[in-house]
Here is the input.
Amino acid sequence: MSVRTFVAPTAREGLARIRAELGDDAVVLSTRPHPQGVELLASAYGELAAPVEQAPDAASGSRILAELGRLRGLLQNQLAGFAWSAGRRRDPARVGVMQTLFAAGFGGALARTLAARLPRSRTGESARHWLRQVLIRNLPLLPAEGDPVRQGGAFALVGSTGSGKTTTLAKLAARGVDLHGADGVALVAADAYRIGAEAQLRVYADLLGVAVHAAADANDLARLMPRLAHHRLVLIDTAGFAPADPRVPAMQGFDALGIRRLLVVSASQQGAAIEQALVRFGQGAAGCILTKLDEAPQPGPALDGLIRHRLPLAYITGGQRVPEDLHRPNAVYLVDRALKGGQIATPFTLSPEDWPLAAGVEAERADPAATGSPVRRNAG
Ligand SMILES: Nc1nc2c(ncn2[C@@H]2O[C@H](COP(=O)(O)OP(=O)(O)OP(=O)(O)O)[C@@H](O)[C@H]2O)c(=O)[nH]1
Ligand SMILES: [Mg+2]
Here is the structure.
């Protein structure tokens, strides 16, 4: 079977040429953009249907298998595209929900789940309103009475390197001093083996007038904790690790010492890095602190992770200033920030003409008349 390549200024002209040269029943296997317009791969129907005349030898057998595999890929590509365009025609509101979420950096798993739950009656503005409300309702927040600083107890700040643990701990400590007085708060540097880590904490402790202790390892920490029991709030700074670091699971050992973990996640990280942090550090954590919102043009991936993992948000931070840049989370603000992030034009955002391509229907791109006007990317 021979597959031929045609290049034409438009898909329509390409199809006309294919028909002229290969016959009316020629099969278009795929199309894709080309600097001169569009490139089409096509085969005459008769050739496609032609039976294999002789038993193939081993070499030609594997060539046939390879060709069949390629054809299967092309076909899947086309079918995915047809499904996309059928879905878009049948249910533009549902597709619009997915596009809004993708543009804001939310992932496919959550986008598909939410789009599937969009009530039939919701379209246009009403669908956008529904999406915003669903995100707001599903973003888990620690209630005010569960505020770790107000409630008191021992909390270890854990998370990836540089996520903002020590700076956030200083902000929490300042808040703790406001609520419980300097005597009510103690700090522990549990990453004492790192040069400068304890010194960084001591600077904040001195500024706030609170006690600071160092724990070289888990045994040290176990010995220290009972001695700090009279403090209303004990904040433990830990060393940052990459989520895949083999030392991370040992942090679950804090639980046995009565220390609750607060996962510190930078909102400006990639979705995949946030997901790893949630999976590796977040198991059994009491809550999450989302940092660096001031640096995150698209906090969508972070909200996506919190919603899927049901990890409640305790605080957010939006700057380096201690103690000013620490706030209790507000779901309306965060969801609106995330959806607004979807309106930023970046080279990483899919544009309307990329959507069918991403779904596999390159053919539609070349012939917009066949599908009607493209769905708006941003539902704002
Ligand atoms: N823009 C911005 N910067 C922040 C925020 N929180 C922390 N930082 C900065 O991020 C950098 C790292 O902060 P640290 O608090 O040292 O982070 P860490 O998690 O303790 O780092 P390691 O202990 O090395 O794992 C510092 O320059 C902080 O000032 C924030 O909310 N916004
Ligand atoms: Mg630190």
User: Anything to note?
Assistant: Residues 361-380 have pLDDT under 50 and may be disordered. Residues 62 and 360 are 26 Å apart (CA to CA). Residues 91-138 form one domain. The chain has three domains: 4-87, 91-138, 146-341.
